[in-house]
């Protein structure tokens, strides 16, 4: 592991505490990101090929923004599997239920914001999520651009998480309303029910 290996154990412990299955071993091969793979809703990790432990948080974030009942249907291609699971439950098109429609529209951004909130909650370095090369950004000065957008309250994942009731509205998204929940990065729930 190239970035912040000390953050792996707290991250794995947190993911298990909120109900995710995390397994070490060869099942991590062939995933979307090196050293992490999803199979039947379980997160597989290989510390030797994992670039940064924050990648686990990001992949878990894709699962966390969906209702738990859909997790077992998720595998390596989280985007395609999410779309298939939601379509099987709600039919074709955009579902009326925001807990299904918002992740379809903003899943990547919501997973980014979720992983940031989780890292803050755990007290692990944000650089375990935002490292050179993460989110296709290789060169930058100061904090990673994604981190800056989150901290400025302009990252679209903040609004998505608030719309599905996982956190309160904050930043520019506070103009959209008030759901009565503490504002991001405080999370009222880590996984959709």
TrEMBL record:
Q: Which domain of life, per UniProt? A: Bacteria
Q: What is this protein called?
A: Uncharacterized protein
